[in-house]
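Following the same procedure, sequence and fold were stored together, as reproduced here:

>
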Amino acid sequence: MAAQMAVVSVTSAGTAVRFTATPTPIRRLTIFSPLSNAGPYQYVGGSDVSSAVYGAALPQDGGGPVVIDFAPGTGDLSDFYVDADTSADAISYVAVLV
């Protein structure tokens, strides 16, 4: 079982950043909010993610983890985006690959 780990930074608050542009089938995704974020929140969701539309909101004080398990053949890392209230905030993730 292989895993992929990365940090995804939001360069400009209010602009969604894709986890990866490369299709990457996954079995599980675990998302964390690093303690170094200025906050107050980081938002994870689809391409339309924002402070008003999101799947998960992680607080800046090390929120998480958020764990998502996928049925075989249904999860793809390239479907996930992050946005934040503060520029330069980030999330980190660990993805278990198929």
The chain has a mean pLDDT of 94. The domain at 3-97 is CATH 2.60.120 (Jelly Rolls). Strands lie at 3-9, 17-18, 25-32, 41-45, 56-59, 66-69, 75-76, 81-84, 90-97.
